[in-house]
Amino acid sequence: MAARTSAHWDDIIARCIDKTHGVFLLIISLYASASIVGAEGRAIELLYKFFVVAVFFQAALWGNEILGYGLSRYLSRRYGQTENTNFDALSTYSVINITAKFVLWTVLFLLLLDNLGVNITALVTGLGIGGIAIALAVQNILGDIFASLTIVMDKPFEVGDYIVVGDKSGTVEAVGLKTSRVRALSGEQLIFPNKMLVESEIQNFKRMQQRRVEFGFKVDYESPVEAIEKIPGVVAEIVQAQENIKFDRSHLARLGDTALEFTAVYTVLSTEYNAYMDIQQKINFAVIRALSELGASFSYPTPSVIIQNAQVAQGSKMFTKGVDRIVPDAAH
Fold it and tell me: How far apart are CA 180 and CA 163, in angstroms?
């Protein structure tokens, strides 16, 4: 019946009822019967202790079930249906589940001892001091574990995303408790401590919605002025002729020291890197062909030796399309 409704509270109640232990019901019945008939003495005291133990034990079972349901519900909402859950992230979620259950059982156990008349002050103090000592001893490991929780909860990346961290890049294969594994394009597996990933700047290319591209080229100053004036318009036509792109601009950007520098900007309406490279290759070929037809030429470094009075000058003059640099001879 609970499965046929959209509410969730009845699912929790149904699961708790299913996990209700028969021994708990038996002890409850015995204690209730003894109380009704007015039992006294040692027997009722013993039944009361059994009753307290049964109540706390059953509360722990119900708490386990509620925590498990909450975790599965969270996974379902985060990743979709349970069968499509990202199981590579479950190691971190299992730690959350185990930790929460451990805390639950510890608290209930201390409360049980307190209800049974045991002085738990010294025990709690000892647990606190022991916990601090353990935390200091394994602080690096705990730092990576908490970092893994941050990655899973905050989701700066997921399994299958292509990320760049510093000078390393690759596809995320797994997010573990202490480390995350990334498969590089060259084939090797990169292993990053989770704490380092949380503290680093991460580029996530999987979440790129579109790719903005800016490319440029240099034209010789000796090219015809008429051809230079036509280049921005020609490049704009070339870019706009491509499919799956959005043209932005094309200009003579600056008068460089050695050449005229042109830039063009467009947006590829796809995240696929190969699609971007195919488009850029077509544009490059078309620009080369167009500059050839216009009579303009690309700028490139050119060495030149200046001869004076039929003799080599004292210095060898090296220049690149307008920039002279005197290289002194080794000996005069």
Answer: 12
User: For residue 284, which of 315, 242, 317 has the smallest C-alpha distance?
Assistant: 242
197 and 322 belong to one structural domain:
no
pLDDT in tens, the chain (332 residues): 444 555 566 677 777 787 787 777 887 787 777 777 777 777 777 777 788 888 888 888 888 788 777 777 766 665 554 444 444 455 556 666 777 777 787 788 777 777 777 777 776 777 777 777 766 666 677 777 778 778 877 788 888 888 999 889 999 988 887 888 999 988 899 999 888 888 888 988 888 888 999 999 999 999 999 999 999 999 999 999 999 999 999 999 999 988 999 999 999 998 888 999 999 999 999 999 999 999 999 988 776 666 666 554 444 444 444 444 444 444 44
From residue 56, alpha-carbon distances to 19, 34, 47, 100 in Å are 14, 20, 14, 16
Contact 164, 205 (CB under 8 A): yes
Indicate whether 128 belongs to any domain: yes
Task: Judge if 28 and 128 occupy the same domain.
Answer: yes
> Same domain for 268 and 233?
yes
pTM of the model: 0.52
C-alpha 103/C-alpha 145 separation (Å) is: 17
For residue 151, being part of any structural domain is answered with no
Residues 36 and 106 in one domain: yes
309 in the same domain as 288? no
Domain that holds residue 253: 211-294
Q: Kindly provide the residue ranges of all beta strands, DSSP E only, lying in 230-301, ordered along the sequence.
A: 245-255, 260-268
DSSP state letters, 244-259? SEEEEEEEEEEE-SSS
Question: Could you tell me if 187 and 177 are in contact, meaning their C-beta atoms sit under 8 angstroms apart?
Answer: no
CA atoms lying within 13 Å on the CB side of residue 118? 12
Same domain, residue pair 131 and 19: yes
- 144: in domain: no
Same domain as 132, residue 94 = yes
What one-letter code names the amino acid at 149? Answer: L
Provide the domain count of the chain: 4
